[in-house]
Amino acid sequence: MEFVSYIETRKGKKLLKVFKSKRAVDMFLKKNTDKILSKSGIEKVGSMSKRDWDSKEAKYAVNEGKVHFEKKLKSGNIFQVIDRDTKGMRGTQDKFSMQIVDKRGKVIKHIGSHPSLNGAKKYSNSIKEGKKRYYQQDRVGSAKYTISYHDGKKKHKDGSDFFDIKTFKNQRDLAKFVNGLHRFGFVYGHANESINESINEAKVKRPVNRWLELKNDETMHPHKKMAMGLKELKYQLREVEKFFNWYNKIKTMNELDSQNYWKRTNNHIYTIKEKLIKIAKTIQEIEKWK
To answer: What is the pTM (predicted TM-score) of this model?
Structure first.
C-alpha cells in the first residue's frame, strides 16, 4: 500500500511526496520534520495512506497553480479558476480546475475541471451561493441537540430560505457536524456574524444574549423584526408539529395506553401543555389592538 506525506498550512493541506510503504514515509518524516516545520507558514506535518488522501483530502488540498480568474460570491467566498495539476495523468486532460475558497484562501469546495478558461468563467454565472448559516436549538422533540442549516441555495415556495435539520444525542457528534459546517463556509446565524469557536472545541458556543442582539439590532425596522421573526417561528412550529405527529403514530402503531405511560412521559406532556397555553396567550397579546 502506498502512503503520502503532507504539510498543513493556514490555507489547508498540501501533498509533499508519495511513498511505497509506511516504513518509507516514517523514515522520511523522522529525518525531515524539524526542517520542514522551520519554514514559515507550516503548522503541521503528517502522513496517511494514499487511498485515504485520494478519497478524503485530495479535493480540498491546496493547489498553488496560477489563479486565472476570481469572482466574489454573495456568501463572501471566492470562486477561482486555476491551473490543473495533470502530472501523471494519461491522455488529453482539462487544463483548468474550478474551486471555491474562503476569505483566507482555504479551499472549501472543489467544483471540477474545464477544458477552456472562458468556459470556466461562464460556469461561475451558474453558481448561486447565498449566505450559508446555521443555528442551534436544544430539546426539540426527543432530540437533545438540533442544528438547522441553510446551504445558501434551497428555498421555500414563497422564496424564503429553507433550513435542513440534523439532530444529535451527544455533544461529540454535534461538535463534529458543526466543525464540518465551518469547513464548508457556514457561520452561526447571519453571514456577517463572527465565529469565535475553535473547531477543536467539544462545545458549540452560542451568542451571549440573543434577546439583546435582537433588541439592539438597528439594521432592521421593528416591523421587519416582527415579520422575519414570526415567519421563522412558523417554520419551526411546522417542525415541532411534525415531531408530534410522529410520536402520535408511534403510539397508534404500538397500541400504547396513555394510562401506562412512564411517569416522566406524563410529566413531559403536562409541561408541554402548559407551555402551549402560555404561547397561545402570548400570541393573543401580539395580535391585540391597542
So the answer is: 0.36
Please check whether residue 25 is in contact with residue 47, taking contact to mean a CB–CB distance below 8 angstroms. Answer: yes
How many Å is the Cα radius of gyration of the chain?
A: 25
Annotated domain spans of the chain: 3-60, 67-126, 133-233
> What's the CA gap between 120 and 57, in Å, rounded?
23
Which residues of the chain carry a pLDDT beneath 70? Answer: 11, 58-65, 75, 87-89, 128-130, 158-159, 189-209, 290
- State pLDDT tens for residues 231-276: 888 888 888 999 999 999 999 998 899 888 998 999 999 999 999 9
